[in-house]
Amino acid sequence: MAGADDFMKYRSPLVSRYASKEMAYNFSDRKKFTTWRKLWIYLAKAEKALGLPITDEQIVEMESHAEDIDFVMAAEEERKLRHDVMAHVHTFAHCCPAAAPIIHLGATSCYVGDNTDLIMLRDGFDILLPKLARVIDRLSNFAEKYSDLPTLGFTHYQPAQLTTVGKRACLWLQDLTMDMRNLQRARDDLRFRGVKGTTGTQASFLQLFQGDHDKVEELDRLVTEMAGFKSAYLVTGQTYSRKVDIDSLSSLASLGATVHKICTDIRLLANLKEIEEPFEKEQIGSSAMPYKRNPMRAERCCSLARHLLALMADPLQTAAVQWLERTLDDSANRRISLPESFLTADIILSTLQNITEGLVVYPKVIERHIRHELPFMATENIIMAMVKAGGNRQDCHEKIRVLSQEAAAVVKQEGGDNDLLSRVQADPYFAPILGQLDSILDPKTFIGRAPQQVSRFLSEEVRPLLEPYNSKMDVKIELEL
């Protein structure tokens, strides 16, 4: 619960209004600084195992104080020292007097800073991936349910040949499955910075181990393993390459583009009254227009997705301007761009899950729109039926052209309904096929292989992708705002 003082300063809405508790914690100061302490413990344990004079008592002392951080003292130390890592070294040493001489031994600030960032990126992906899997699961259920429900297709946002509601959802799903693979790859490609020293040469550790290269390499391997990574980058400067941030955030920005497209489609369909996002019983769409049912969840996703796309510029420029072994002009930028990208992706996925769990379809509205456009689309089928009945294609084409233009004039100039079918039925020329018109105009004869494509796509590409997350599918999303 926010106190009165909290309302006197800016609070990021990504945390105060939107993001999940687990993602907010992942980039919190407590997670960050307790991870620093764990990294110092890993380093001391590995150095001890490789023969440096570090005692069990020192290790136990550090472990017993890994969580009890005096943030007030740390802030005061940082105010004096103007160095966040040394402030926390001093704060940790204050409660671990026996271990004080060996805390941060041989390390540089990026040992804790960069390695913690990599842990947060990894853990951030681990939060996002099950959420993305749930969105894909909900949307695949929707696609399966409506796999054969005909609907107008649109190209250039103009009525085109029919598709199905489920097939359209598969277009959304295909992009999401690509995002799933991108996020998983970005997560799996992450390595640990490890124990590399001030400019990445491991010189300080080589000195600690009196020139023993094997021990330095083993130190790097042990700490990497303790941190839960399979491997470390073999070469670094003072920092890990900032292209790693590009790789991570580009997968999130690409997800943002996908979600923006999906939610824009939902907003367009809501305007047509064909599909709506969930709408609560007491929800208000407009303060002035009581009848309105605004697609506010989809709009929120689009709004935040734009921010996610914009954040992509930061890691690109940061990587481009890192001089030689490193410069510090990456630091302030990364404090914002890395957490905000994951926080933004987090709330986008939570909101999209809520949308896909409650999408409402209005088949009668969809059917009315089809009836309005289908006679025009069926003209080629009518011509072919007449030819089969013995008619001349050119004569039939001219008849249909004239009747179509007359019907179009009624629609566009008089605001009337499409009466092409009535005109065809009233023209004696078409008497040979009047008994076939119902079957010719059956919408399901215009959807091609859409239902079969849905079935194959879901079974071959979507369901297998979700198998690793089957145990995490039962979580439902209730939006508080």
Topology:
Blueprint: H1 13-18, H2 21-26, H3 29-49, H4 56-64, H5 71-81, H6 84-95, H7 109-145, E1 150-155, E2 158-164, H8 165-189, H9 203-208, H10 213-226, H11 243-271, E3 275-276, H12 296-311, H13 313-320, H14 331-357, E4 360-361, H15 363-377, H16 379-388, H17 393-414, H18 420-426, H19 437-440, H20 450-466
Antiparallel strand pairs: 1-2, 3-4
Protein described:
- The chain is mostly helical and 481 residues long.
- It has helices at 13-18, 21-26, 29-49, 56-64, 71-81, 84-95, 109-145, 165-189, 203-208, 213-226, 243-271, 296-311, 313-320, 331-357, 363-377, 379-388, 393-414, 420-426, 437-440, 450-466, and strands spanning 150-155, 158-164, 275-276, 360-361.
- The strands form two sheets. Strands 1-2 form a two-stranded antiparallel sheet. Strands 3-4 form a two-stranded antiparallel sheet.
- A hairpin with a 2-residue loop joins strand 1 (150-155) and strand 2.
- Helix 3 crosses helix 7.
- The longest helix has 37 residues, at 109-145.
Uncertain segments of ≥5 residues (pLDDT<50)?
286-291
Strand content: under 5%
Q: Determine the fraction of residues in helical runs and give it as a percent range.
A: 55-70%
Task: Give the number of DSSP strands.
Answer: 4
Number of helices: 20
Mean of residue pLDDT values: 92
Using the alpha-carbon principal axes, give the shape: elongated
Radius of gyration: 31 Å
The biggest sheet, with number of strands, parallel, antiparallel or mixed sense and barrel status, is: 2 strands, antiparallel
Strand order, biggest sheet? 1-2
From the helix content, strand content and strand pairing, which structural class follows?
mainly alpha
What is the distance, rounded to the nearest whole angstrom, between the alpha carbons of the first and last residues? 16 Å
The succession of helices and strands, N to C, reads HHHHHHHEEHHHHEHHHEHHHHHH
